[in-house]
Amino acid sequence: MGLLPAARVAFATIDTTISQISHELTARSGLEAGIERFLEQLDEAGAGHNTILAYRTDLNQFARFIHPRLGSDEASLENVSAEMVALFAVELEARRMKPATVARKQCALRAFFRFLMRQGVLDTNPASLAAGDGSRRSRRLPPKSLTLHQVEQALEVSATEAGEDFSGARDRAIAEVLYGGGLRLSELVGLNLTSLHLDEGEVVVARSRQSPRRVPIGSKAVEAVRAYVMLRADLLLDRDMSRVDAGALFVNRQGKRLHRRSFQRIASRVTSRIADDPTQSAIPDASSAGNAAGPRLLRDSFTAHMLAAGADVASVARLLGQFTVSAGSSGGERGDIAQLQANYERAHPRSGLPCDRGADRGAQADGAEGRGPQQVQ
Questions:
Q1: How many other C-beta atoms can be found within 10 angstroms of the C-beta atom of residue 317?
Q2: Buried-exposed string 22-42: b where 16+ CB fall within 10 A, e elsewhere
Q3: What pLDDT does 360 receive?
Q4: CA-CA distances (angstroms) from residue 225 to 103, 157, 170, 231, 297?
Q5: Do 199 and 301 reside in the same domain of the chain?
């Protein structure tokens, strides 16, 4: 006996509801399902064919990047973290993609995760978190970096010229720390005497709304900072301490913390020595970017040289502060920091650590997680 019309309508309604539920996006939905739903929404909104194709290309590239790191069973929307988005950006930069291309892909990710937030699928946008301050401005990256020989030449000339002069020693220390640690300009400006942990070969840097992180700077930078700090102390002996920035690491002859423009001029002056040498290729972007190119050039050279020496992308991303290993004291964090230090010492050209000591440090890092909490020295 056939179903009554009312029953058929009821069952049809149930089937429709089940179908809708089965296709609803949730935080546990697969990444590809979320991408397809986003592209459907773009199509419904009247986006052009080329726009949709560009989004599909960029988001599918991100999905291919994510799967080996999560596995097919765990590649759900809720498992995509800001850390993974930051890693993706670092890998794009390591491939020397044009800044406009990197910016477009980051923009696609932010738009995708904003859509998921509007749908109630996610509570946060990992692409905005990975950008640092949630800024929508793309990072303007120079397309090239200095060669290792060029950096070594510039820093060695700086060391030769430093001598016993306060300004020379300070400028050398600034350049060594910039390249040795890959620091941002704002991080360098904010360094204090209390940031120094030279026995461990590290500085602790902090940015607004982020936890402090430990950054190895290499033996050459440690040597340069030690020499500068001694001259700094001699200089300030003759100053009225109520009129100086006693806690600031890098100061001028009046004892005041250096302004960011002073750091830019100093770094640019160091790297400009290469351009003056006709046997070396010109500095990338130096003519168009002016003094601002100096600090960024040394930071990008740090990145390029670490990757070329075999450092993994995740370690370089942490060293650059793309995402952080906290300077806190838990045993697990100390294990992460020790491993990061070991990776740095094996890969950075100016770490000054023999390979066997680098291996020993790596072995120590492997056992650090099992130890109890330790105080940051």
A1: 23
A2: eeebeeebbbeebbebbbeeb
A3: 42
A4: 36, 16, 8, 10, 21
A5: yes
Domain with residue 295: its CATH number is 1.10.443.10
Residue 126 and residue 152 in one domain:
no
Q: Is it the case that residue 370 has pLDDT exceeding 80? A: no
Q: Which residue has the tokens 């401005």?
A: 137
Q: Are residues 254 and 204 in the same domain?
A: yes
pLDDT band at 263 (very low <50, low <70, confident <90, very high): very high
How far is the C-alpha of 95 from the C-alpha of 360, rounded, in Å? 31
Query: Do 285 and 232 share a domain, yes or no?
Result: yes
In the chain, the amino acid numbered 13 is T
**Distance of alpha carbon 79 from alpha carbon 234, whole angstroms:** 54
Q: How many CA atoms within 13 Å lie on the side-chain side of 229? A: 17
Identify whether residues 100 and 209 lie together within a single domain.
no
Buried b (16+ CB within 10 A) or exposed e, 116-131: beeeebbeebbbbbbb
Is 3 a domain residue? no
Band (pLDDT 50/70/90 cuts) for residue 141 is very low
User: Beta strand 202-205 with 196-197: parallel, antiparallel or unpaired?
Assistant: antiparallel
In a domain, 329, yes or no: no
Give the domain range for residue 210. 148-306
Q: Are residues 108 and 170 in the same domain?
A: no
Name the DSSP class of 203: E
CB neighbours of residue 283 within 10 Å: 24
Structure tokens at 353: 């650590």
Question: Same domain for 111 and 164?
Answer: no
Please compute Rg for the chain using Cα positions. 26
Strand order in the sheet with 213-216: 196-197, 202-205, 213-216
The model's pTM is 0.60
- Dihedral of the alpha carbons of 110, 112, 117, 118, in degrees to the nearest 10: 120
For residue 80, the domain's CATH number is 1.10.150.130
Q: Do 159 and 297 fall within a single domain? A: yes
Instruction: Report whether pLDDT(175) > 50.
Output: yes
Instruction: Look at the chain and report how many structural domains it folds into.
Output: 2
pLDDT tier for residue 361 given thresholds of 50, 70 and 90: very low
Tell me the CA distances in angstroms from 203 to 55, 294, 364, 377, one per residue in order: 40, 21, 20, 11
CA gap 201, 162 in Å, rounded = 21
